[in-house]
Specification:
The protein has 105 residues and is an alpha+beta fold. The chain is built from three helices and four strands. The chain has a four-stranded mixed β-sheet, with helices on one face.
């Protein structure tokens, strides 16, 4: 199964910046609302599909250098940085609930 990398700024930040930069340079004609919608849908999709992926790396790229903030391997949370953006919670919510339930059983 392939590895999936998601690169995103906090709460989708960076996507709008990308959009305006690309528009200014004349190379992007997708409306901002569609970019925001696709970003939101990708978070929902990953939240569900994280159970079917062998390995998931969540990488924060809103700073000068990108930083891996979460690793999920074989449906288990291997690590999550102590400080992370809110979008990480949106992705990991179901996975963490399942892990909590499995610990109780």
């Amino acid at each position: 199964m392939p590895t999936l990398y998601i690169l995103a700024g906090p709460n989708g930040a960076g996507k709008t910046t990308f959009y305006f930069t690309a528009v200014e340079e004349g190379g992007h004609d997708i409306p901002e609302n569609i970019i925001r919608h696709r970003y939101s849908m990708s978070l929902l999709y990953l939240r569900k599909e994280i159970f079917d992926l062998d390995e998931v790396h969540l990488i924060e790229n809103s700073a000068e250098t990108a930083e891996e903030i979460t690793l999920v391997k074989d449906r288990k949370l291997i690590f999550k940085k102590e400080v992370y953006p809110e979008w990480v919670n949106k992705i990991l919510y179901l996975l963490e609930r399942v892990e909590e339930k499995n610990k109780k059983d």
